[in-house]
Amino acid sequence: QVQLVESGGGLVQPGGSLRLSCTASGSIFSINTMGWYRQAPGKQRELVAQTRGVITNYADSVKGRFTISTDNAKNTVYLQMNSLKPEDTAVYYCNVNLLPTRGSTYNYWGQGTQVTVSS
Known about the structure:
By secondary structure, this protein is mostly beta strands. The chain has strands spanning 2-7, 10-12, 18-26, 28-39, 46-52, 55-58, 66-71, 76-81, 90-100, 106-109, 113-117.
């Protein structure tokens, strides 16, 4: 069984910073990709940032402001969010594509963490 646990959301003023983290635990054989998605009210879930080894990609709207990183020894992915804007307000979901010790490759999702950018 695999679990993803997120932390780090909250309320921040425009221009502020937050750091999200997500740790995968359980029966993990290997990890393919780790990333973050977000969903604002009334909108579809969208990719924010994703990493596969040394390859990273970002949504155009967050380039230069957000940085994704990983601690492979801890199966943890981080999202450093700087220069936050009100339009970054959303529920942020961790996503990990991995191969468990038994079964097939699968996409796992975190429980979501609310990020609110407001003065």
